[in-house]
Amino acid sequence: MINVLFVDDEPNILSALQRMLRGQRSEWQMSFASSGEEALNILAETDVDVIVSDMKMPGMDGAELLEKVSELHPHIVRVILSGYSEKEGSIRSVGSAHQYLSKPCDPEVLKTTIASVCAQRELLTDQTLRRLVSQLPSIPSLPGIYVELVDELGKPDCSTRRIAETIRKDIGMTVKILQIVNSAFFGLARPVSDARTAVEFLGLDTISGLTLGVGVISQFEQRAPGAMFGELWAHSMSVGVAASNIAAIEKSNCGSDAFTAGLLHDVGRIILAVNLPDDYRSACDLSESEHISMVDAETQIFGATHADVGAYLLGLWGLPGEVVRAVASHHSPSALPGEKFTALTAVHAANGILRRSHSEEDGCDTKLNLDYLSQVGLVERLPVWREVFGAQAADPVLAVW
Questions:
Q1: Which whole-number Å values give the CA distances from 161 to 91, 178, 243, in the listed order?
Q2: CA-angle at 110, arms to 136 and 3, nearest 5°
Q3: pTM higher than 0.85 for the full model?
Q4: What 3-state class would DSSP assign to 329?
Q5: pLDDT for 88-116, tens place per residue?
Q6: What's the whole-number average pLDDT of the chain?
Q7: At what angle do helices 204-218 and 226-249 cross, to 10 degrees?
Q8: In angstroms, rounded to a whole number, what is the distance separating the alpha carbons of residues 386 and 401?
Q9: DSSP class of residue 354?
Q10: DSSP 76
């Protein structure tokens, strides 16, 4: 049974929520609070899994409430509902929320969102992942620039001009996007120095995925070991680009998901290294001394892997299921039954080929799963996919990421 707490200062809205969600009573235990103070009192006495709060409330608003919840009860999934006309007020809530929904919110969207974040609890068949995440001193929240982009992308009149204006708010984001679009991989006839031109060339889906990746990693940049951060960016960017192009070779429509999943497939490594540095170092030492893969070492030390932790986080943020599944299973694709090419196929292939070609890790951690590739009928495509990596290996931009 999932326990969900709804917070809104308008009695009519709380009553409407109770009526609307009556059919969920067999699956959810629901509580309702009319203020931030009342919500905190409930949380002090009740074990809550998800809190859904209105943004604009008198006294303690939703952003402040969720900030307190993140400090006092970090394991609780935090969702904000905002009908604010002031964009700054809405974006302020991003710092404390795992997911952001516009208000008024369609009832089915609300149900689906809550069901989805609760489903992340089942990423493992036992309780190890939930115990692990609850131990983390900090679980990051959705990057602000990404929320602004999602808002803009969801508009019927979405424009590259407004997307570019949003990106320009973040100097680091602008620089990285221009690095990518000017890389040798794209083979442009002339350099691109304008964010809007870059957006038009890369496409909105790629820009969205790239923005999320930069936002995720940048939250850890100041706390992550410098060498680890640089290596992760170099590898993750290469996997993202290669996975997207493998998808293009196979004429699959999952290129955007493959790019995003490739970019974020190892984010769990940074989450563990930043939040549990001693244990992560123990896992590294165990891998080296026992000559076992990091995946096996992580399982022994944490009871879960970096893939599990990364997928859990991305699932909390409401990323597409294809992305979450690809991140969760990029080392063990056979765990997901299927007989067709997916984003997981692209990321598994890109990650395996790159790591083996660069000898970055022990071979037992990086072997391609030929049984899985045979299962999806694509093992004979490996020589074609390997050709993707020639341009990337010679690309000085991707080499320093």
A1: 20, 16, 28
A2: 50
A3: no
A4: coil
A5: 444 555 557 777 777 777 888 888 888 88
A6: 79
A7: 160
A8: 21
A9: H
A10: S
Locus of tokens 């326990």 = 3
User: Residue 88 is encoded by which pair of tokens?
Assistant: 């700054």
If phi over 0 gives left and psi between -120 and 50 gives alpha, with beta otherwise, what is residue 291? Answer: left
Gap between the Cα atoms of 115 and 107, Å rounded = 12
Q: What is the pLDDT of residues 267-315, one digit of tens each?
A: 888 888 887 889 999 999 999 999 999 999 999 998 889 998 888 888 8
For residue 400, pLDDT over 50 is answered with no
Q: What is the DSSP letter of 124?
A: S
Q: Which helix (DSSP H) or strand (DSSP E) does residue 100 occupy? A: strand 99-102
Q: Do 174 and 195 form a contact (C-beta atoms < 8 A)?
A: yes
pLDDT band at 209 (very low <50, low <70, confident <90, very high): low
Please state the length of the chain.
401
CA angle 41, 43, 45 (to 5 degrees): 80
Query: Rounded to whole angstroms, how far apart are CA atoms 275 and 280?
Result: 9
| Sheet containing 77-82, strands listed edge to edge, beginning at the edge strand earlier in sequence | 28-33, 2-7, 50-54, 77-82, 99-102
Neighbours of 392 (CB within 10 A): 21
